[in-house]
Specification:
mainly alpha, Cytochrome Bc1 Complex, Chain D, domain 2, 3 domains, 6 strands, globular, disordered N terminus, binds heme C
């Protein structure tokens, strides 16, 4: 019995762990999938299929269900967990290897309840806890699109690499029973209110909280709806902090206007900030394809979220650091490392160049308590998303083989305490941990390094 119950716990934990590993390396693929020769569909059918195509982009199905360089929706993308990989499945309408013989009920059970056609439970790497909030009529449109708008591809599914006994799927049933909400049955149209529409998208199809909400002991999302403080308050995913999206002025979206949020989701950047890490693919594959009205609805809803820290105040700009850098009076390792490696793009004032190099001064990403994202970005560099709205595209080089753990700790500590920024210092130990976790090259050896 002890063995069985620990299998349940372990199964649940790994299942959820895998869920937390949503691939940041999702492939860059065209969402416009070639139209198969669907039997002459009526106009109403075509409209339903088009609606499904749009909803599939909002739900980012392609990100997980397409392997790097693979055919759209044919599955096979490995999602890492320390005990093995879980592979996404073929969801093209191929009858033998895909979901071509799924009835609507089979499809709905998989998407909103986490139950496969053969009755076994799916790993919550498939975000059915969020999709449970999708209205049945929207699931019907998704079904129409996957059955008749997607090209069938014959490609067999790969079994998970997980070893027995953790590979047993029955413990996942207990995870589902404990943590997955019931699929909603209310199919009435939403009231004509952007905030209601925004909430529907954020909690459901767009599954923003899969990355942006912290996880509890079962590695489940601590909250699946606005609870006043935890929902969307930040979570670590694939070595990046999917940061606080609540109303905090310092490290949330308190100082972002609704227009900033829309610009970010549409073009991957604002005048002062840029998407990086896992958010790059979310913008490329999903949010840039959403309508302006839906993006405005998401922004309106996010702006209703109260700050986690209700006593927190906004940061104020402080010109002292820029003056000291220009005068050459700050000889600290952090300041010198910044001048040598960062100032060309981010400038001594820390304000960068609008829509080109993001501002470090007063940035909500820079001022998050958890420095994981910043360390990861300085080690490996980043590229802004490719979008229709902002076709020019800039990158930041990685510094893993040029800067030591101490240099990176010092330069980030400098960035997080200059120009009015106010966030805890970064230690060389923290950098060493992230360097190991993201498998960046070893630090350079330099005798003169302090
Ligand atoms: C965050 C990654 C992710 C996203 C986003 C995602 N899926 Fe999945 N999905 C998976 C994984 C992984 C599996 C396999 C889980 C398992 O083996 O237990 C899966 C399984 C499925 C299955 C079961 C297939 C079968 O062979 O029985 C269906 C159907 C499905 N997904 C449809 C969708 C649809 C439709 C969307 C968009 C609305 C979507 N998925 C979005 C990761 C994802
Ligand atoms: C696959 C994981 C993932 C999903 C899903 C996701 N995000 Fe993100 N998001 C991140 C990461 C990681 C960051 C931090 C990097 C950055 O700031 O660009 C981020 C950053 C952001 C930022 C920038 C905040 C700032 O202060 O700099 C916004 C805004 C945002 N996400 C909104 C959303 C919304 C809205 C959704 C749902 C439509 C969403 N995200 C879904 C991973 C994700
Ligand atoms: C060649 C120009 C360039 C250099 C040099 C450069 N960066 Fe960047 N930086 C960028 C770009 C472009 C981005 C956006 C990256 C993305 O979207 O993935 C960025 C993003 C950032 C961010 C995230 C800011 C935010 O609010 O979104 C931080 C922090 C950062 N850089 C710090 C540094 C530090 C520290 C150095 C020096 C060690 C440095 N950068 C060197 C161009 C540069």
């Amino acid at each position: 019995m002890a063995v069985l119950s620990s299998a349940v716990v372990a199964g649940a934990a790994w299942a959820a762990y895998a869920f937390a590993q949503e691939p940041a390396s999702a492939p860059r693929v065209e969402t416009q999938v070639a139209q198969p020769q669907a039997a002459a569909a009526s106009d109403a059918d075509k409209a339903l299929i088009e609606k499904g195509r749009y909803l599939a982009a909002a739900a980012d199905c392609i990100a997980c269900h397409t392997a790097k360089g693979g055919k759209p929706f044919a599955g096979g993308l490995g999602i890492d967990s320390p005990i093995g990989k879980i592979y996404s499945t073929n969801i093209t309408p191929d009858k033998t290897t895909g979901i071509g013989d799924y009835t609507f009920q089979d499809f709905d059970n998989a998407v909103r309840r986490g139950v496969a056609k053969n009755g076994s439970s799916l790993y919550p790497a498939m975000p059915y806890v969020s999709y449970a909030k999708v209205k049945p009529s929207d699931v019907k449109a998704l079904y129409a699109y996957f059955m008749r708008g997607v090209q069938p591809v014959e490609q067999a599914n790969k079994p998970t690499d997980i070893v027995w006994p953790l590979s047993m799927r029955w413990p996942l049933r207990f995870w589902r029973m404990t943590f997955a909400p019931d699929a909603i049955t209310d199919d009435s149209p939403l009231p004509n209110d952007p905030i209601v529409r925004g909430r529907y998208l954020v909690e459901g199809l767009a599954h923003c909280s899969a990355c942006h909400t912290p996880r509890g002991v079962g590695l489940q999302e601590k909250s699946l709806t606005d609870d006043g403080h935890t929902f969307l308050s930040g979570g670590v995913i694939d070595g990046y902090l999917a940061k606080n999206l609540r109303g905090d002025s310092k490290d949330g979206l308190g100082t972002w206007s609704e227009a900033d949020i829309v610009a970010f989701l549409k073009g991957g950047r604002t005048a002062h900030s840029a998407a990086f890490g896992g958010m790059t693919e979310v913008v490329e594959n999903s949010t840039q394809h959403m309508s302006d009205a839906d993006l405005a609805a998401i922004a309106a809803y996010l702006k209703t979220l109260k700050p986690v820290d209700t006593a927190g105040s906004a940061l104020t700009a402080n010109p002292a650091a820029a003056a000291a850098l220009r005068a050459g009076t700050d000889r600290s390792n952090g300041a010198l490392t910044f001048l040598d490696n960062c100032a060309a793009c981010h400038r001594t004032s820390g304000v960068g160049y609008s829509e080109t190099f993001p501002a470090l001064a007063l940035s909500s990403a820079v001022n998050s308590d958890d420095p994981t994202s910043l360390i990861h970005l300085v080690l490996q560099g980043g590229e802004m998303p490719w979008t229709k709205a902002a076709p020019t595209h800039y990158g930041m080089p990685g510094f893993a083989d040029r800067l030591t753990n101490r240099d990176i700790a010092d330069v980030l500590t400098f960035v997080r305490s200059s120009w009015g920024n106010h966030a805890p210092a970064v230690t060389a130990d923290q950098v060493a941990k992230v360097r190991g976790a993201v498998k960046a090259p070893a630090q350079p050896t330099r005798a003169e390094n302090p």
